[in-house]
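Q: Hi! First time doing this. I have a protein sequence and I read that you can turn it into a structure. Is that right? Here it is:
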Amino acid sequence: MGEFTDKVKGASDKVAGNVKEGVGKAMNDSKLETEGKAQQVKGKAEEVEGKVKGAVNDL
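A: Yes, that's right. Below is the predicted 3D structure, encoded as structure tokens:
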């Protein structure tokens, strides 16, 4: 994927993960809460990947 695509995918994963985590907490569903946290981490990693691609392209 490209820089922009990675950043957008990362942002959407962070938002979706945050929602999952919140619903998991509200429903006392530790599995859903954990999935949400993991999705947020994945989103952060995708955003970093996009930033790295952008930095490499700027060289």
